[in-house]
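Researcher: I'm comparing several assemblies side by side, and this is the next one on my list. It has 1159 residues spread over three chains. Same procedure as the others: predict the full complex and return the structure.
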Amino acid sequence: MSTVTESKKAPAGERVADWADGRLGIYTLAKANMRKIFPDHWSFMLGEVCLYSFLIIILTGVYLTMFFHPSMNEVEYVGPYVPLQGQLMSEAFNSTMHISFEVRGGLLIRQIHHWAALIFLAGMFVHMMRVFFTGAFRKPREINWLFGFLLFFLGMFTGFTGYSLPDDLLSGTGVRFMQGAILSVPVVGTYLSMFLFGGEFPGGDFVARFYSAHVLLLPGIMLGLVVAHLILVFVHKHTQFAGPGRTNNNVVGMPLLPVYMAKAGGFFFLVFGVIAVIAAIASINPIWAIGPYRPDQVSTGAQPDWYMGFAEGLIRVMPGWEINLWGHTLVLGVMIPLAIFPAVLAAIAVYPFIESWITGDKREHHIAQRPRNAPTRTAFGVAWITAYMIMLVGGGNDLWATHFHLSLNSITWFVRIFFFLGPVIAFVATKRICLGLQRRDKDKVLHGRESGIIKRLPHGEFVEVHEPLSQGELHRLTAHEQYDAAELPPAVDENGVERKIGRMEKLRVKLNKGYYGGDSQIAKPTVEEYKEIQSGHGHH
Amino acid sequence: MKKLSARRRHPLAAVVVLLLALAATGGLYAAFAPAGTAKADETAQSLAIEEGKKLYSVGCASCHGTGGQGTTDGPSLVGVGSAAVDFQVGTGRMPAQQPGAQVPKKKVIYSQAEIDQLAAYVASLGAGPITPTEGQYSPEGADIAKGGELFRTNCAQCHNFTGEGGALTYGKYAPSLEGVSPKHLYEAMQTGPQNMPSFPDTTMPEKEKKDIIAYVQAVNSDKADNPGGLKLGGLGPVSEGLFAWVFGLGALIAVAIWVAAHTAKAKKS
Amino acid sequence: MSSQEIPEENLPAGQDTAHGAVKVADDPFADPGLPPHKPRIQDIDERAARRSERAVAFMFTLSMLATVGFIASYVIFPVDKIVYIWPLGRVSALNFALGLTLGAALFFIGAGAVHWARTLMSDVEVADERHPMAASPEVKAKVMADFAAGAAESGMGRRKLIRNTMFGALSLVPLSGIVLLRDMGPLPEKKLRVTLWTKGLQLINMNTNEPLRPEDVAVGSLTFAMPEGLSEHDEHFQTEIAKAALMIVRIQPEDIKDKRELEWSHQGIVAFSKICTHVGCPISLYEQQTHHVLCPCHQSTFDLSDGARVIFGPAGHALPQLRIGVNEKGFLEALGDFDEPVGPAFWERG
């Protein structure tokens, strides 16, 4: 309540703010958020890379819609690009040619749009892995993890629909693949295909239909998810790595106003600038060289954009199984990859829930873990990435063959075998590396840092001088928590009654032992150990 | 050559098929090609055949047989015609260096004059496609756009949209067309070297070959325009994805490290 | 699984105390708290701060110049101007100039702001307390009570008829939306089973648009054909060619291993569907010595000398063959449609 008579008029800015506050309640919002603290770490900015490339995609996308005609009507090309003059093409392709060759700056915006899309997806992948490997998905952030995962998943399909819009020979081949995959769906496949394409492939409808999905439906959902994702980041406050003064109950860093306003705001311009420069120097999806789509033409090296490369790999290396029974065909050769693709993605999406079930830990966690301190999770993550990367290799098997002078068929067989074997090897190796690093940390805590100075003792022995760590460093290396492996309660309780233990609980305990049992983590040094060593032989 | 004879053990069974294929191509070509125009100076011709035979017995006979009849190491050359010789020797594929899935392009070791003599000799063994004249293969005035359409129908499936090459089965590949001369492009379509199918004039007339050559020259040569910038090998999404990860995301992470890093503290004086 | 069932001792020792809210003097691992703030050179040396200020201003100025450059490039360079720039090659001058100037204009705003934040804004680290997400028991109790009151007032639990009919109405109403989707496309019927090919249609060479004669097709050559009467300008060309495209090769009859294939050929000239049976790419990477044909999309490999059976890759069945002959004018003609659906397999294919 302000007094009616103010002695002095407030400055204009304040009056505007007052006006807005009276209607929007901005002071209450600002009170909580204006000096919000963000911790400094480069890996915490990966999400910003995604956010900004998403904004760039929206900005450039709006520009492109002003020139793009989402129509499959056939026209003859009369534009300036000589090698296509007189060719028949859809209006979608023709208008994309127009954007690329006749609209000043159109080519630049198209390239920024497409490069930003590739970087958006790559950024989301890396961001997701950062969150995964530091355990930042744990309570209270599980839902935000799912939002992020959904963004990645929808991003793939937004990308795919956008990639298909110019109706060029490469993307048309991709759409043809999609149609073939839909046909393989049992019972309803042919119906789905007819409905989606408005009849037989390619028909005259899919560009317009993909267009509304690409510019409205999918980005609309994504925008909502992005907003929700950001609100939750604000509400939860960012995770931070353990260190002196950085606990589970606080967040240490710089305030939003002014430092993060400048840093995060500036980073938007940096991201946009970098992508604009990339679009200036590197061409992407040169549809003029690819040519208009015709279902009877094709080029070798027909691949989707990288984020669909994993699916492409699955479909390429799958053996051609097909079952014909009672007048029906079960196209396993296409259906199985089609099912593995979401299953592999779902495996990473549901992981947080599995881990929290295994640990039984219901507390909030705000300290980002070092990957080595969660060896089983880290090993699982690396195994997952390995499977993903091997399928990316499979998706580019023809280019591997030509560029490394290998046989296409051998690469395919390699991928078939290592899709199963690779993750196992990666799991075992990663776990051992993590444990090795844990041992090294323990060694460092107990014996200090290797200084590189070699000292000769009076009796002739050579020793390396170890410098003791600072207390801050000691704290940092011992701040992580370690679970004790779970045990099943005794089969008979104290009253001699047989205890009922469910099968799920048995499984949980078994998994828990695998996670935190004797060989799965190195017990962190205790104060007693430390004191004993420090007092015993301080020189060591 | 010595290297060749040292490696002559390899049984190139598949090339027996080439023998049949090329012989048939040549035979058909001879049957339908306009006959009897090259009787101009017979003496110069027979001289070239004579010289070619000498070169042949030194460089080629060890695999293809003394009379071009073929051995286990090399197919018969009867009826392959001068165009095949001009292509194979003119691109350095022949003489072959070692057995493998496919004989690669190498440094050319014969002069054009010697190649012409060799070609004249091989052509004398049996009628086959004749080395094209410049009038046949010169892309001057050809329809580039029509060539593009033909290229996408007939060629792109193996050689990629703009002729960057691609993989075939078991280590074989369709080579890149970058820097391949119009004559050799023409001869390749005419004769179908190694595993490439032929595109004889009966199904792809001379004019269409010219269109294709004009298209390849327009999109895959030093003179080709890449308005968007680096063409990244012309390989499509795989190299684009790699570029986005390494240079795009790489640069952004480098920037992020700078943004998030703590500023240097003043040293204690 | 509720948290009560997890024995407390299996959880790590209280994370809150481990992080040393209270500093224990003789615990060497205890949290020493935030280290004291150390000043940057800009904090103690005004000249250094000035230098930073100038650097920031310089970057903002560069951005302004770059924007001017962007507008100038837009005006100066014709849209079709190609220039050679090492190592990019022959690129569009306009695209290059616009991209670099726009990039610089944006980048230097960002770089200036970040440099400003890093060198001149306070770099004292501040700690913010966290609060648990879950509401306090009092809040929860109040919400539960409010909900119970609201639910009771609605009569939802009591008046089952209202509740049930409402659920019924709500679950039925989306059906209208689904019904509306029906006209997105026709029913499949036999569409995927038939192509334009019928008995007597000549095979038209796609290069020349002329009918093919058997003599035209040499052993080792590759030709693509479409049915007579189809033209690129037809409205349904794309849809029809997607099923009717043919790949024509000639194999020495004695090399053809499959009896039916030889029977359906004309003197070794065989016509196979160009559409891959995997997911429909136009397959046509024909190796004339091995008679293998490879799909460039997913590497299914078919042996054209053996009934086009699959010898590698993800395709599930052989390429359909079109039975051909020669008509009285001496041209190749189809002797009917394919006897099986072309292209990818589907449920009703059988």
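Model: For your comparison table: Chain A touches chain C through 147 residues (CB under 8 Å).
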